[in-house]
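FW: tagging you since you asked about this chain on Friday. Here's the raw sequence from the shared folder, copied in full. Didn't touch anything.
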Amino acid sequence: MALRLAFLASDRPEAQAARAALASRYGEAAENDADVVVALGGDGFMLETLHRALASRRPVYGMNRGSVGFLMNDYDESGLLERIAAAEKAVIHPLMMRARDAAGAIHEVIAINDVYLLRQTYQTAKLRILIDGKVRMAELLCDGVLIATPAGSTAYNLSAHGPIIPLSGEVLALTPISAFRPRRWRGALLSHKNKVTFEVLESEKRPVSAVADNVEVRDVIQVDVVEDRSISLTLLFDAGRGFEERVLAEQFTA
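HL: got it, structure written out here
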């Protein structure tokens, strides 16, 4: 049976043009009927597509028609069915953020890339960090802090000077954002099994937002983050250019 493809594209003109060309060449299935979803855009659009795939769990093959394309394959209209058939699979597990705000409301949000806390005003955030219920840092003064999955480790985490991590490492990156005290703390690598809790200290004076990918919760007082192994998402990469190879190569670029 022929591989059924659904094509999704970002709003960029080059992505829309690519979608029209590929659909005309290979035919197009409805997203709910497809064997593989082909995402056309940059890494931001790949993130949107993966969130859409949370319900169907269909594998996603991306081609770069955006600015940044770490999670995307090179764009080429020819041989698409053969490339997908030979593609390497990368299975990723998202984070579950459970945030409690100052009004007592609970917000549960899935994050594929990262969860981060950021100060809302000119005042630095003051946070306490617990790992599996044990206080590991009694007080961190900072602009913020983030926890990233391997898939998200090359995004905001890398910009904040956090480590790039492979999928096979089964670790999460805990990275401060402009730490003021302790000034020399550079973060930690955690087991994917760890539960991370952030407690916001002096929350009325130093309000903090929590963000899970593109969903923001303001005025949080506590945020719990765990990896959700019950959810598996599959990314497809061209043979020889899998996620692990990309992570390795990225660490040797200037």
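FW: The chain has two domains: 5-92+232-250, 95-227.
HL: agreed, and The two ends are 45 Å apart (CA to CA).
FW: great, closing this out.
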